[in-house]
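User: quick one - fold this with threonylcarbamoyladenylate bound?
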Amino acid sequence: MRAMTGTGLETAAQWLRQGEVVAIPTETVYGLAGNALDPAAVARIFEVKNRPRFNPLIVHTHSLMAAADWLAPYPDTVLQLAAAFWPGPLTLLLPKSPLIPHLVTAGHDRVAIRIPAHPLTLSLLESLDFPLAAPSANPFGYISPTTAAHVADQLGDNIPYILDGGPCQVGVESTIIGLEPDGRWCLYRSGGLAAEKIEAVTGPLYPVGNQHDSPSAPGMLSSHYAPRTPLHLRQDTPAVAPVPPAGTAVIGFDQYLPGYPAAHQYLLSPDGDLREAARHLFALLRTLDQAGYTSIWAFPVPDTGLGRAINDRLRRAGV
Ligand code: TXA
Ligand code: MG
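Assistant: Sure. C-alpha cells for the protein plus threonylcarbamoyladenylate:
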C-alpha cells in the first residue's frame, strides 16, 4: 500500500470508519490517527509507528462536550483551560471513563486529551462519531513531521491516506499538563503553548520526575525526536564557542558563530522570533540529517515561553 496524499475529508473519514489509520494535520505536528474507541485501530497505530505499547496516545476531539462520555468528572479549571486555549497546542491528562480502551492509555487511569487548532482536522473530527487517538506521525524515536511530505517519506508505505493541511504553523508538539490526585497541575512536556500562559489559569505548574525511560513516566523518554546525525547541544554561546570541526552543521537562534563558514550555519530565526524558530526546527533537523554532515552543533535559544519547548527538543535530539 502506498499512501495517497490529498485534502479529501470524506476519503480520510471513510478509511477511519473502516478501522484504518491515516495521517492528519494539526497546528503542532502531523498525527497518525485511528478510532480511539476501537482497540484494533489503536493497535494498528502502535504497529505502524513501531511504538512500544507502554507509551500512551493523545485522544483528539472537536469539543469538550463530545468528550464528556470518555472522561470522569473534572473540576472547573478544565472548563477555564478549554475556554482559554482550545482549540490549541495544549493536552490535558484527565481521569478517564471506562469507554477509553486500556491500550490508548497504556493501562493508566488518566487519558490525554486535546482539541487541535487545524480547520481540516476539526472538520474531520466533527464528521466522525468517535475521537481520534493520534501520536506524532513519525517512526518511534525520530523527529516529528511538520509537512505531509515528511509523513510520506517515512510512513507512506504503511498507511492508505495522508490528509494534507499544509506546513504546521506551531511546529513543536503540544504542551502536556496533568491534573494530579491532589488537585495540583504538573507539567509533563513543554510544547507549543507557553507554560507561563497556562499558569495564569492553573497557578504554578509543578515539575514531574524527569528523564526516566520507564513506563511510569510516559512522555518523558530522554532520547527522542532525534536525527541520525549526532547532535551536540552546546552549553556555551556562539560568541565564545570554539570553531567546530569541518563537516559540522551549526544551528543557531539569531546569531552566527564567528570564524565558521556561513554556508554551514543555519539560523532558526534571524529576527529572533521564538515562534518562527519553533515552526522551522523539525524541518531543519530533517534537512540537515539528509545533507551528509558528520555532526550537528546546536546552540540553545532563550529559555522562555516557546523557547523552553525548543530547548527541550534539542536536548532530547542530542547525544
Ligand atoms: O502536538 C501533539 O501533541 C501531537 C499532535 C499529533 O497532537 N501528538 C503527539 O503525540 O505529540 P505523541 O504520542 O508523539 O506524544 C504524546 C505524549 C507521549 O509522550 C505520551 O507518553 C504522553 O503524551 N501521554 C499520552 N497519554 C498519556 C497518559 N495517559 N498518561 C501520561 N502521558 C501520556
Ligand atoms: Mg511523538
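One thing worth noting: The longest helix spans residues 274-289.
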